[in-house]
Amino acid sequence: MNFASDNSYAAHPAVLTAMADANSGAVMGYGADPVTARAEAAIRDLLEAPEAVVRFVATGTAANALVCAQLSPSFGRIYCHDDAHIETSECAAPEFFSHGAKLVTLPGEGGRIDAATLAQTLQVGAGVGLNGGRSALVSITNATEWGTVYDPDQVAALASVAHAAGLPLHMDGARFANAVATLGCSPADLTWRAGVDALCLGGTKNGAMGAEAMVFFDPARAEGFDYRRKQSGHVMSKNRYLAAQMLALATDGLWLDLAHRANTKAQVLGQAVVDGGGRLLQPVQSNGVFAAIPKAAHDRAQAAGVLYHLWPDKTVQGADPVPLRLVTAWDTPDADVAAMAAILRS
Amino acid sequence: MNFASDNSYAAHPAVLTAMADANSGAVMGYGADPVTARAEAAIRDLLEAPEAVVRFVATGTAANALVCAQLSPSFGRIYCHDDAHIETSECAAPEFFSHGAKLVTLPGEGGRIDAATLAQTLQVGAGVGLNGGRSALVSITNATEWGTVYDPDQVAALASVAHAAGLPLHMDGARFANAVATLGCSPADLTWRAGVDALCLGGTKNGAMGAEAMVFFDPARAEGFDYRRKQSGHVMSKNRYLAAQMLALATDGLWLDLAHRANTKAQVLGQAVVDGGGRLLQPVQSNGVFAAIPKAAHDRAQAAGVLYHLWPDKTVQGADPVPLRLVTAWDTPDADVAAMAAILRS
Amino acid sequence: MNFASDNSYAAHPAVLTAMADANSGAVMGYGADPVTARAEAAIRDLLEAPEAVVRFVATGTAANALVCAQLSPSFGRIYCHDDAHIETSECAAPEFFSHGAKLVTLPGEGGRIDAATLAQTLQVGAGVGLNGGRSALVSITNATEWGTVYDPDQVAALASVAHAAGLPLHMDGARFANAVATLGCSPADLTWRAGVDALCLGGTKNGAMGAEAMVFFDPARAEGFDYRRKQSGHVMSKNRYLAAQMLALATDGLWLDLAHRANTKAQVLGQAVVDGGGRLLQPVQSNGVFAAIPKAAHDRAQAAGVLYHLWPDKTVQGADPVPLRLVTAWDTPDADVAAMAAILRS
Amino acid sequence: MNFASDNSYAAHPAVLTAMADANSGAVMGYGADPVTARAEAAIRDLLEAPEAVVRFVATGTAANALVCAQLSPSFGRIYCHDDAHIETSECAAPEFFSHGAKLVTLPGEGGRIDAATLAQTLQVGAGVGLNGGRSALVSITNATEWGTVYDPDQVAALASVAHAAGLPLHMDGARFANAVATLGCSPADLTWRAGVDALCLGGTKNGAMGAEAMVFFDPARAEGFDYRRKQSGHVMSKNRYLAAQMLALATDGLWLDLAHRANTKAQVLGQAVVDGGGRLLQPVQSNGVFAAIPKAAHDRAQAAGVLYHLWPDKTVQGADPVPLRLVTAWDTPDADVAAMAAILRS
């Protein structure tokens, strides 16, 4: 039983099929092939953004770091949540790609920044002068690192604050599909209509092998971006196989279907936590369950060989209740979910 | 008909099968999965290098740039051929990854550096002091960017010069398989036994979708390398799909078989060039044909819609004879090869 | 009246004299001159560190950033106080020079990190894996950004924790002289005898025009450092003028004398704060006074045109009492100190 | 006798006096002081460029590298001469500051690029696509590294080619004063009126201790530049001492007077080379003499302890005639010049 991460799980068969379908004949490399063109168009359609620039890379870290570097100079300040993936989990890739941008982190309940905190922080940031660097970008994650979501109004409030300060808004959407599945809104409502300027739309955690889309809603913001991607080694020469993955996910709503499946499994686990006397640290709004469960339940899970991460890190070892994170994927076996739910309830 | 690049072509079915075989169940991410372990072992076996550190990335630019950055400080001088891929075709990725290393290029017949030229250049480099930076690395490409190969003795001569100056030797082996197929030597003879310290062993141009191995023969040289790879966004969370590609190529000699096929097709085209009154700019020793052909033949090829690159670039347009590059892949259709040969001969 | 910063003030006449003395005849450039040799020796003597590598640069930001980059790879984690100058006031220079190192900040009373907090943070840092980067360096500032000092025992406790984790300890000593003047200890006791591995010893804030020494107590840690300094444009071709400044300060204890003068002036202001009903936010242990003073006193000072910074930034405008920072220099006029003291007391 | 470099020599007394004059009282730091304002204005006046943005740094490497990084993205191609200082003598600082820009070097007689060669190279550069990076900047040195000068027409021809390709033109003017002194033109004619977009105007080699001006004729090109300078540690907190040096040079034509003196001494040496049967490798047009002299003369000079560099490097040791470089400064003793001339003639 593996609830450690959604990237522990496999690719959807339709993804593999799309790759196989792309696997014949000679095409021009580096993205000048028809599959790439179709996949980029499919993402634009999905987002109702016919003018957007869409590009693909194979990892989420690359996607976020490239977009951060595109939107921030080396002396820029990038505002994000204390627990943002770009801050905690990308080995300082945004700093590396941007050549030194400073991540300025903000607290916020449930992994979400609120607009008032952002406004206050940007006010401070506007006064730091040469010493502190120049405010450059606001970045949020949706669904967040705590499994919660920003709804379109919350995004719009943040975008409004960012734009008032002259800053673009980036959304790390490694689990964007899970957020949309929960909110039931349109992808456009959650992004550009709410003021998002650049989106990283994840495929890897949602049924792809390794594929992420980067979207600049205003093409002017993508100026020179292909060079940046190339220089960092993230232009695939046989790009069709990367594009095929995103194309498969964007076809017939597969991306949303897979996210729904993962979210549903998380709901089952979340309910089991509560039933078993544990406490949800955050409401379950995507495919992650953040909970504190009785040590006895944790011990049973360990004895059964269940894999998951203590939260926020191993230093909580020995606590009672035990804080932890359970992540589900579209293909987490229902039997495993049921078995874990039983452990949590017992 | 496409002779533009080997990366215009497809992945071998066995590669796709290996990815499909890897596509079930939950495994730990970031390379801590059994497919990755098997693939790394397969590469070590292939190279008869049981102690080597092997890692995978999805692009050749990433592979080369990461290895360069691992082996050179920002103030390092990296010696390579005037026409080295790292100099001409990677958008200054080595400079980006290393934070400023200087590529010092050397002339050399057929894309090859010779040992005497290298020795002389290193002697100059030893005297440039703070102004010129510190000599750090020698990098060669095998097969070269001109389709020729270094044999083990030539590699050993260069390694000897590099090592005498205290520098490691890197081999960009994007087409390493093609070189081995031509030389008929063992991979070990062409690398570590000849003094190569780090190898980039390409899969992408040889039947993979996008997979390259980086090999450090002395594990000490790989110190911290996984962090470097992660920070640049080149650690795949679902690494099994990357590893599966290299595993397929390394199984039952597929990699060599595919390279043989591509090389054979190039031989056919090379002979046709000569037969048709053209001139080979270099002997055909891998899967690339560099030739000057009569303008009439070029015009016929253009009329037939054949894709290939003028060489070294478009500014030769209008020349007679026309210098060009023809590249073959394992799956370039034999009919296309025959048709192009006929055009060249006519 | 200017209490805004110690770098608002002038250079000591002896510094100017030393520069004039150096200003004749031809010498070799880039530090290969006799004044540089003497100045480096003088700093080694001052620190009782005959083996140390000493180099000079013109700015404190360069000194800190170069040392950080020397001691941390791009994927390193550099631990420092929340209010460390390298975090708040150097425009992300450490990140720029190191190509992406992550500054991990720790809270701590009075601008000081304590050993227990550090130990706990390093324990977390040891578990973050590829995602979080590799622990590389601990950096402390002495005197701190809050005007307090670490004594040798406190430094030793931190060094012990850092070394136990395999990390070197860096001391940002932009106001090292002020700390030594307060503590009355030997520079060696406060640095290498307490476990400091690298020191930035400031001159600029203490009577120089623009001169800082960087000291690596173990020469092995300085490997390649001159190239790093050169590549960042911080090797002066006419280095004698930079070295002359540090030589003047190191001669006949001038550096300590100047620091004593500045510290004494700060004591006067600190007492006046208390006398006037204000509150010292931190004890006055160097040349900075951090206090909250009655708004009426602040208004009087503003009316008198006194320059100083609100603390930590302008967003405190309007508070009562008003938090602020007053900084003194060796040459802050005593009349100004007295006048400001009167305002504070009134 | 020292003809090794102009930076072996001293600062002019007027420079020291200006620094002493600036050395009193408290001013705001980081360039917000009256001396800096006056010095920036003086440089604008000197260049008849009232709108230009002028900033100072302490080293020529910093000046060039900062301007290059300001005008080129990391994926940019910077075109310069094979022997450009930014290519050969700055330890890859432009690459470091820009995070990877590629210096593409061009041959050219006398250290000068000609417009036809540039046009041809830019045409190639326009076709290299993602592989080769994006053309970003043309950089020339005036006076050149071979002691020759570009006149305003030559500069204008290059600017015209650069601008036609959409690229700005940078002039490395470490010895700009020497060029102006030779040409007798106005600084404006040699720079912005001829199409130069950014100038590094050297002081260090011309009587300063360590001071260079960076000039952006169009303020829009300086956007964010102060942050860039700060992040690289090149904003002096006590900027008045840096500015005072440039102010002294710009006052009453001192900069031109000093350059004239140095140039005159070089003329004497150049004539002596010819008289003594040596050969001038380039005409003497500034303060450098590049010549091949009889080995006997070289041996005599060595015996007399004269310092100078073999050219282009030590590997010419043993040649007859001996190629070398002799550099003069404003304060190279006339007696030394006479003595060396006698050696050359004998």
TrEMBL record, chains A, B, C, D:
**Signal peptide bounds:** none
**The keyword Phosphoprotein is assigned to this record:** no
Q: Which InterPro entries match?
A: ArAA_b-elim_lyase/Thr_aldolase, PyrdxlP-dep_Trfase, PyrdxlP-dep_Trfase_major, PyrdxlP-dep_Trfase_small
* Entry cofactors: pyridoxal 5'-phosphate
- Single Gene Ontology BP annotation: amino acid metabolic process
Keywords assigned by UniProt?
Answer: Pyridoxal phosphate
Ranges of residues in domain Aromatic amino acid beta-eliminating lyase/threonine aldolase: 3-292
A single Gene Ontology MF term assigned here is: lyase activity
Tell me the protein family, please: Belongs to the threonine aldolase family.
Give the multimer and partner information.
Homotetramer.
Protein name listed in UniProt: Low specificity L-threonine aldolase
Q: What is the lineage of its organism?
A: Bacteria, Pseudomonadati, Pseudomonadota, Alphaproteobacteria, Rhodobacterales
